Amino acid sequence: MLNKYARAFFTRVLTPFAAFLIRRGVSPDTVTLLGTAGVIAGALVFYPRGEFFWGTIVITLFVFSDLVDGNMARQMGRSSPWGAFLDSTLDRVADGAIFGGFALWYAGGGNDNVLCAVSIFCLASGQVVSYTKARGESIGLPVAVNGLVERAERLVISLVAAGLSGLHKFGVPGIEVLLPVALWIVAVGSLVTLIQRVVTVRRESAEAEAEAAKAAADDAPQRPTEATS
Ligand SMILES: CCCCCCCC/C=C\CCCCCCCC(=O)OC[C@H](COP(=O)(O)O[C@@H]1[C@H](O)[C@H](OP(=O)(O)O)[C@@H](O)[C@H](O)[C@H]1O)OC(=O)CCCCCCC/C=C\CCCCCCCC
Ligand SMILES: Nc1ccn([C@@H]2O[C@H](COP(=O)(O)O)[C@@H](O)[C@H]2O)c(=O)n1
Ligand SMILES: [Mg+2]
Ligand SMILES: [Mg+2]
After folding, report:
1. How far apart are CA 79 and CA 207, in angstroms?
2. pLDDT tens profile 184-221
3. Distance CA 226, CA 42 (A)
4. Which atom of ligand 2 sits closest to the CA of residue 79?
5. Which residues bind a CDP-1,2-diacyl-sn-glycerol (predicted)?
């Protein structure tokens, strides 16, 4: 949903910055790599210590690089299979660091085994949700569904809640409940999305098999029947 409705807005806002980086000779791959490094650092330095406000600020500064790199590649007319591969692969690494950071906090100072497990579930299910689409497309299916909670939703829900929960350390009472609520929402939403995508791939592969069987039957040489032989 966000990918559909917010992307156009962010493209307009980030295009001048992307053009500036191009003029400075920066490559899209450099932006992809530095952006991912910044997200990993923000997530793994701050979140395991319960520093959710500062961790989210650092991650937010870098996560938008994921929209800038593609924008730069398109402006330069240099969108490439390698760039698409690098972008998607490093998305998985960045997501692993964010939800891994939450899990480390709940396994340590946050001292909550259930929320640790929910964070690990968010991490794993998010990766599998993305994998279903990538694998489905690699076997030639359209995978014509995005589902309830795509990557942009997973990030926005988790990061907004983490940033606000972090205000607890600045004296805002009760607000720390937002992160657990967000993690449960992302976990359930990712499960629903996973089911939506698997059902779609199952339907599309059954349709493709039926079409292939029909094409094979149409192409098969007509066997003489007993009556004509
Ligand atoms: C006192 C206040 C404290 C608050 C602290 C600060 C709060 C700031 C919080 C959050 C900011 C969150 C920003 C998150 C931005 C996410 C941008 C992003 O990277 O989106 C990526 C997404 C997908 O890009 P790709 O096409 O490169 O990725 C594909 C995707 O990953 C596929 O995965 P799948 O979906 O299948 O699971 C893969 O299959 C594929 O391989 C891969 O290529 O990009 C978009 O979707 C574009 C839309 C981005 C929309 C961003 C909306 C940001 C909205 C609000 C942010 C501001 C909120 C501020 C709140 C402040 C609260 C007080
Ligand atoms: N280093 C890169 C990064 C991305 N691309 C291209 O952009 C597409 C992704 O666009 P986003 O707006 O989602 O970042 C990707 O599929 C590539 O075609 C690139 O070429 N090099
Ligand atoms: Mg990108
Ligand atoms: Mg990306």
Report:
1. 32
2. 999 999 999 999 999 999 999 999 999 999 999 988 87
3. 77
4. 20
5. 29-32, 70, 74, 80
Q: Is 91 annotated as a binding residue?
A: yes
Q: Burial letters for 84-116: b for 16+ Cβ neighbours within 10 Å, e otherwise?
A: eebbeebbbebbbbbbbbbbbbbbeebeeeebb
Q: Is the CB of 150 under 6 A from ligand 2?
A: no
Comparing CA positions, the residue from 116, 42, 103, 35 lying closest to residue 69 is 35
**pLDDT band for position 1 (cuts 50, 70, 90):** confident
> How far separated are the first and last CA of the chain, in Å rounded?
62
Q: How far apart are CA 192 and CA 171, in angstroms?
A: 36
| pLDDT digits 0-9 by tens, 151-181 | 999 999 999 999 999 999 999 999 999 999 9
Centre of ligand 3 from the C-alpha of residue 73, in Å: 9
The pLDDT assigned to 224 comes to 65
- Across 26-55, average pLDDT: 98
- Quote the DSSP letter at residue 148: S
Concatenated DSSP letters of 168-186: GGGT-TTGGGHHHHHHHHH
- Nearest CA-CA partner of 114 in 180, 168, 50: 180
Ligand 4 center to 115 CA (angstroms): 27
If one residue of 5, 160, 191, 196 were mutated to test the ligand 1 pocket, choosing by the most ligand atoms within 8 A of its CB, it would be 160
Phi, psi torsion values for 135, nearest 5 degrees: -70, -40
pTM of the model: 0.91
8-state DSSP, 145: -
Taking the CA of 197 as reference, the closest ligand is 1
